[in-house]
Amino acid sequence: MRQVLERAADRLFPDGTNEHGALPAVLVVLTLATGIVDAVSFLGLHHVFVANMTGNVVFLGFALAGDGDLSVRASLLALGAFAAGAWTAGRLGRRVPHRARLFAAVTAVHAGLVATALVVALTAGHRTPAARTALIALLGCGMGLQNAAVRALAVPDLTTTVLTRTLTGLAADAPGPATVRRLASLTAMFTGALCGGTLFLREGAAPALAPALALVLLAAAAVPVRGGGR
């Protein structure tokens, strides 16, 4: 599997400059998972995102302005859970200076959080206040962990949770090697959102979270702890 991901990662750098091993392909896998998870959170958890914090800041403003479809509490919870995850990854980064090892550890923890969220969805659903609170907290914390670890890796054009700069670069820059990575990131997020939204609307939260967990587990298993970062 890692060899397949390494070949895919090399194709994301058509100029032959990939120095990150399989990690670029792993980040695309996590971007796909992000689209799925944000579909579940937006459609089923009081219209919040657990990965896109820009959206939550805006939603918080709308909720405070009086929009009845949005929740101040849910927006604050998502922001706080994400921040807690990012803070934890930052503290771990000071103890695990090897970035690839840090990413491997954080991705494993992220998989555990998504697995716990899946158990909550299977046993309690997503409609009760307690279930929604648990799901937002678990998924938001996992995405905060992921975002901080990916930020430390600094693989060009592959952030896994936000696409504003990616889309800006795609539109503003002349076509080049980075275009491949930017298109892959956009396509992965869109595909994840489409699949996650379809599964959630037709089957519910648990069937939508199951493929997200599979993708994060795949990423955790494929992360090379030797090479791909210092």
Q: What would you say this structure looks like, in words?
A:
This is YoaK family protein. The chain crosses the membrane at residues 21-50, 70-90, 102-124, 208-225. It comes from Streptomyces roseoverticillatus. Keywords: Membrane, Transmembrane, Transmembrane helix. Pfam families: DUF1275. The chain is mainly α. 76% of the residues lie in helices and 0% in strands. The chain has helices spanning 2-11, 23-44, 53-65, 72-95, 99-124, 129-153, 164-172, 177-203, 205-222. Helix 1 packs across helix 2 and helix 7 packs across helix 8. The radius of gyration is 17 Å and the shape is globular. The relative contact order is 0.20. The mean pLDDT is 93.
Find the structural class using helix and strand composition: mainly alpha
Give the overall silhouette: globular
Which sheet architecture does the biggest sheet show?
none
Number of strands: 0
Query: What series of H and E elements makes up the topology?
Result: HHHHHHHHH
**DSSP helix fraction:** over 70%
Spans of at least 5 consecutive residues whose pLDDT stays below 50 are: none
CA-CA gap between termini: 23 Å
Q: Could you tell me the strand content as a percent range?
A: under 5%
